[in-house]
Amino acid sequence: MAFTNGGAHFLILFSFTIFLCNSASVEAKPDYRDALAKSILFFHGQRSGRLPSGSAEGITWRTNSGLRDGQMAGVDLTGGYYDAGDNVKFNLPMSFATTMLSWGAIEYGRRMGPELANTRAAIRWATDYLLRCARATPGRLYVGVGDPNADHRCWERPEDMDTVRSVYFVSPRNPGSDVAGETAAALAAASMVFRKVDPNYSKLLLNTAKSVMQFAIQYRGSYSDSLGSAVCPFYCSYSGYTDELLWGAAWLFRATNQVYYLNIIRSLGANDGTDIFSWDNKYAGARVLLARRNLVNNDQTFQPFRQQAEDFMCRILPNSPYSRTQYTPGGLMFKLSASNLQYVTSITFLLTTYSKYMTASKHTFNCGNLLVTPKTLQRLARKQVNYILGENPMKMSYMVGYGTNYPRRIHHRGSSLPSVTTHPQSFGCEGGFQPFYYTPNPNPNILVGAVVGGPNQNDFFPDERTDYSHSEPATYINAALVGPLAYFAGSK
């Protein structure tokens, strides 16, 4: 999430003219398998640390970066992902992206084909880093690297970073139940992904998840309160930390089947309704995950979570009398103006996954007089995925590199600046602004698979680099889309 100083916004007329001149429509029938491969490839472009030899095809413009991350605290915190178009590692959204990638692999791995191995690699790049964060220093959970305020005053490639790489952590004296709960969820979910293919790694992930979750439960508090401007306003925990405790406990229960975590879930009393699901607010995701136990395993203990999950669906479905969700004229779910597609992809994941659970149990439910079948949820999910891939009023794919008409001026430092391979000299902190940030020229490097923030409530997308709320990609937008893409890629 890159907040930059100022921004020369180009005339909408100019931007619209560009699209009229470049309005070749994407294929009539979406190629879900191609989109799936590209959505995972995107993570190569976000990698921090020492990159393996033989760069991913299509992302050859990235090289090593952040090799001294953690040195300020005397620990190794290399690796992980830059969250969006900036050069900071924020562990709350990174962990959520990891959880969603893992959930996608768990639910849809059989439909992924050769992309399952690539998905596992994307997950492991994150979990290797999260393990370092959790295990480097007893009594500390490291939760971020890089001063976001200093970083956002610069426009430079990750390979050239010369801003301070501050290290942030939570501890018993400065708790962070939200970031710890999400980290535990990511590690627990990933442990299930690797259970059969790498049992020892899976055990390490699960044992670490348990200890991080214990820390989250025992020392309660929000990391926003503990860390202040290091995480706010970028990734404040606006929803509080109860949702992450519920989410973390739900994932540990799924991974272990231990009653201890079920008792924690019951003790939280998190019964408020919601109509959103995101890196910040996990209630809906936790309820869908727990509802599975009722639908698939016929365990009546979990019936309340099924009811909560269905209340959520009733708030999303456009024809439901309880709907609280706005849709654009072109049919896109519209939750918030800043980076709206993050909510679309996350909620779409819940739609496909809940429909999968309903199909397994031959279950239907009602929103008032509206009968909801698995196909009801599938149709809405497909509409959202197809819109992202180009079935929209602008005939634009919001996934970079998919189709022929996609965003060319994304708000992303590495993509917008010439690669180190073509321009070895550093541009410096502010040297990239005038020639590359403010130019109307397309980005020199294509960040294949990146899904941007998306269009406004009127289905219009200006393709302006300075307009980060619409043109910036993020790991958590992509991570949630991988599952639905796999679902439709594997459907007959």
General form: globular
Radius of gyration: 21 Å
CATH architecture: Alpha/alpha barrel
Structural class: mainly alpha
Report the sheet-strand fraction: under 5%
CATH topology value: Glycosyltransferase
Largest sheet, described in full?
3 strands, antiparallel
User: Helical residue percent?
Assistant: 40-55%
Q: Report how far the terminal alpha carbons are from each other.
A: 37 Å
Instruction: Give unreliable regions as ranges.
Output: 2-27
Task: Tally the structural domains.
Answer: 1
For the record, the CATH class is Mainly Alpha
Q: Treating each run of at least 4 consecutive H or I residues as one helix, how many helices? A: 18
pLDDT average, as an integer?
A: 93
| Order of H and E elements | HHEHHEHEHHHHHHHEEHEEHHHHH
User: How many strand segments?
Assistant: 7
Oligomer: single chain
Strand order of the largest sheet: 1-2-3
Active site: 411, 463, 472
EC number: 3.2.1.4
Enzyme class: hydrolase
Family: Belongs to the glycosyl hydrolase 9 (cellulase E) family.
Write the layout of secondary structure elements.
Layout: H1 12-21, H2 32-46, E1 89-90, H3 91-112, H4 115-135, E2 141-145, H5 148-151, E3 167-170, H6 177-193, H7 199-218, H8 223-227, H9 242-256, H10 259-268, H11 283-295, H12 303-316, E4 326-327, E5 333-334, H13 341-361, E6 365-367, E7 370-372, H14 374-388, H15 413-416, H16 433-437, H17 468-471, H18 475-489
Antiparallel strand pairs: 1-2, 2-3, 4-5, 6-7
Helix pairs in contact: 2-4, 2-18, 3-4, 3-6, 3-18, 4-6, 6-7, 6-9, 7-9, 9-10, 9-11, 11-12, 11-13, 13-14, 13-18
